[in-house]
Amino acid sequence: HHHILNISENDFPEKYREIIRRLQKAQSEQALRNQMTLEDDLRSQIENIWRESAENKEKIAKQEKVIEEKEKTIEEKEKTIEEKEKALSESKQAIEEKEKAIEEKEKALQDKDDFIRKLQEELKKMKNK
């Protein structure tokens, strides 16, 4: 229980004034102790907040670094994908060109076959004459 001693020693006879001064001093010192305790608690809480803030800033900095590294990895993978897509496109183009060349060679072979057949027919005609 807290009691407030808010009296004036002049309201009491001289023989009690010393006791009243001592009680007021004790009350005053307790209030001072309470204030100091409160200040210590406040200081401790502020230090905890600062420490937590510093720890959070450190965590955030680490997380930002991890994010930057992941973004760099993503960029590298995207670049690799682009390179593979380009290579694939070039391969498709090469295949198309080879297929076209094969078609041209097949046509040339067909033309030669047709020419050989015509020559054979003409030879038969010449032999039969």
Helix/strand structural class: mainly alpha
The global form is rod-shaped
Terminal CA distance: 145 Å
Count of extended strands: 0
Point out poorly predicted stretches.
none
As a whole number of angstroms, the C-alpha radius of gyration is 52 Å
Helical element count? Answer: 1
Q: Note the main sheet.
A: none
Helix content: over 70%
Mean pLDDT: 90
Order of helices and strands: H
Q: Hey, roughly how much beta strand do the residues contain?
A: under 5%
Report on the structure:
The protein is mainly α and 129 residues long. It contains 1 helix and no strands. The longest helix has 115 residues, at 14-128. It starts with 13 loop residues before the first helix and ends with a helix. The mean pLDDT is 90.
Pick out its properties.
129 residues
Topology record:
Layout: H1 14-128
